[in-house]
Amino acid sequence: MGDLEVLPALVAARWPGRELVVLGETGSTNDVAKERARAGAPPGLVVVADRQMAGRGRLGRVWHSPPGAGLYLSAIVPAPGVATRVPLAAAVAAARALGPWAPGLHVKWPNDVLAGDDRKLAGILCEATAGRVIVGIGVNVGHADFPAELAATAVSLRMLGATPDRAVVALALLDALDEWLPRADADWPAVRSAWCQASRTIGAHVRTAVDLDDDGALVVEALGHRHRVVSGDLA
Ligand code: BTN
Fold it and tell me: Which atom of ligand 1 lies closest to the CA of 61?
C-alpha cells in the first residue's frame, strides 16, 4: 500500500471520527461504498483502495486501476435536491484539488478532469443508492505509462512532473469535496460559474455548447434552437 499507509492518520487528524476504509485490493470502491450505504453507513464514509480488480467508469467503461499508481476513492454523500448537479460539483472539487500539482487543468462535461493538452487525469462516477450518492473518483497519480489503448488519451500527475503521495492527494480531494458538494444545493450559481470557468466545453470544445442548465444539463444550440444534453459523452 506504500504511500496510502499514512492516510488513516491524516484523515483522523483532519476529521476526528470520520469513517475511512482503506483496502489493499477490491473489485470497485464504489461497490464497497454502496454496500456500506445500504447497511446504513452515514454520509462522510470514504473507501480507498490500492488496486481495483473491476474499476468502473461511466458508460460501462473500465477504469484502469493498477496497484501503487492510481487513487481510487469513493465517498458516501447525502443525496441533494438535484442529484444531477453532484457530478459537476465533484468535477469542480477535483480540478481545484489537483490544480496545485498540474496547472492548466480543465473540466469536460459532465465530469472529466483533463490536463492542458486534453489527456485525462481524473474521472468521476456518481451512483445513487439507499437515499445517498456514492461519489467515486479515480485520479492517475503515479503511473509511469498507460496500456497502449490509453496511451494517447490518459496522463498521470507523475507524467506531468508532480510526485505527491496518494494519501496527500486524497486529503486534498476530500477537503475540496467537503467544500463543493454542499454547494450543489446551497449555492448552485457558485458551482455553475466555477464549472463554466474551468470548462473548455462551453464555447470552445463543442462549438454549440452555450451554458449549463439548473440541473447540470449541457445546453447546446443548433439551427437556432436550444437543446438540453442530459447524458452521454462529448467527442
Ligand atoms: C469515468 O471517467 O468514466 C469515471 C471513472 C471513475 C473511476 C473511479 S475509481 C474509484 C471509483 N470506483 C470505481 O469503480 N470507479 C470510480
Answer: 3
